[in-house]
Amino acid sequence: MSQLPAGTIGDAIGVLLFTFICLFTNILLIWLYWVSHERLSYVALIAYFALLCTTSSIIQQIYNYTLWDDLMWAQLYYIEANYNNADVIFNNGNFGFMRALAIIRLFCYIIESSYLMTYSIHMVLTIYGYWGTRRSAERIYIVASRIVPFVLDVITIGLLQTSAVQSSFLAYMIVANVQAVTSCAVGVIIISIIINKYVNTKLSWRYETASSRNSKGWKLLFRTSEGSKRDSEPPQVQISRTLPTVFDNNWLVFRLCIAIVLISAFMVASVVTHLPQRDDVARDAQADQPDLSAGRARSNIIGYIYGVTPGLAIWIVFGLTRTFRQIMYEKFVPRRWRLKETKPPPQNPWSPSYDVQGPNDRLESNVARVIMNVDYPLDDMRRIARRSSSPELMTAPFLVYDPASSQSRSDLPVSRESDIIWHG
Q1: CA atoms in the 13 A half-sphere facing the CB of 232
Q2: Cα–Cα distance list, 72 to 91, 103, 124, 304 (Å)
Q3: What is the structure's pLDDT at 140?
Q4: Per DSSP, what are the bridge partners of residue 207?
Q5: End-to-end CA distance of the chain, in Å?
């Protein structure tokens, strides 16, 4: 039986339902990485701690809603005895079991943001070809970037339990937020760099009129490393395709923008939400009875949303790539509901429109068979970087259209980690 005030039951049910949705998407993302044999990748590690955070939130919500009145009275007595303690202020008077759950969630917030930063650093260095000639350094980074954030997080939680830190609210805020806020800030900057690189690469396509077919198409420009000689540069090959706009597929940019917005919101909320709690605790310490109003309960209920949203956000950003969408489509959509793939009818060789491939046509076809999926890499990209003959990953085209390719989709090799398709 819930002890929540009248009029807040609906809010509690709604937030709890949203929390279970985040839990489901979090488990789904973990399953996608397990079936893809990427169980220790950066994103998988983030998902594990996000799952722990969401689970602790569900436990605390049920515990809090059920014993609302009793907990508020006990919390009042605890605040009156310890209102000068920075830990009491930071946790808004939570103690005992509630405080233990709050510490678990704080640990998860810090480690999630740290792994996001180390993953972003690894990804952007891979994009710019830094690991191309530094394999041993990459291996060291991969191991260290998984261990060091965890150790620093443990040290942070340990420092928060010391009396020296708990004696000053400012010191407590700095220790509790410095690792998470710094990681989020670096992650936002790096993701912005990745978006800029992606957009600039798509803009490298030159729109022009194809004289042979009297139709508009795109000109594909191959990029080579700066140190290469002009004599060795490959000829530019034109591949015609009618496209409505250079940004014909903005799903990747949309997902990365979601990541930037949510990370920025998390970074601001980590600091802003705790600042008013100093006055709230001081006011509660002077009160004769706890605030059992519907407004106080509703504010407490809504506060749970901020902590469980990462479980949904990481699935949107990392779990909706083309490869993972295909896995979910094949596993969860019944066969009778799937769209039937229709093959184009064979072309009549006696038709005037039938073209026999010449040497130039074969060259265009071979070039067009180097395809990079528009989804762009969103997980460990080292495998793809190693396949490129150039030190720069961007030497391969981003968008190539192959109207003459006879390979079916099932024949194309798919990289699990980076969601990039290469064949040729």
Answers
A1: 7
A2: 14, 19, 48, 17
A3: 94
A4: 218
A5: 64
Partners of residue 239 on adjacent β-strands: 218
pLDDT digits (tens, 9 = 90+) for 63-72: 999 998 889 9
Q: What residue spans of 161-231 are helical by DSSP H?
A: 163-166, 169-203
b/e for 187-215, b at 16 or more Cβ within 10 A? bbebbeebbebbeebbebbeeeebeeeee
Q: Among residues 198, 239, 241, which one has the least CA distance to residue 216?
A: 241
Residue 76 scores a pLDDT above 60 = yes
Name the strand (E) or helix (H) holding 239. Answer: strand 237-239
Which among 129, 177, 154, 158 has a CA at the least distance from the CA of 381? 129
Give the contacts of 146 (CB within 8 A, at least 6 positions apart): 40, 42, 45, 115, 118
Phi, psi of 286 (to 5 degrees): -95, -5
Q: Which residues pair with 206 in a beta bridge?
A: 219
Phi-psi region of 2 (alpha: psi -120 to 50; beta: other; left: phi over 0): beta
The count of C-alpha atoms lying within 13 angstroms of the C-alpha of 369, restricted to the half-sphere facing its C-beta, is 16
DSSP-assigned letter for residue 205: S
Helix (H) or strand (E) holding 237: strand 237-239
Per-residue confidence at 23, pLDDT binned at 50, 70, 90?
A: very high
- pTM, two decimals, is 0.72
| DSSP run (H or E) holding 272 | helix 251-272
Spatial distance between the Cα atoms of 115 and 194, rounded to a whole number of angstroms: 17
- 411 contacts: CB under 8 Å, gap ≥ 6: 423
394 residue type, one letter = M
**What domains can be seen in the chain, in order of their start residue?**
9-199+250-326 (1.20.1070.10)
120: number of CA atoms within 13 Å, CB side? 23
Report residue 309 CA to chain centroid gap: 12
Rg (CA), the chain: 27
Provide φ and ψ at 227, rounded to 5°: -85, -5
- DSSP assignment, residue 421? B
E strand or H helix at 208: strand 206-210
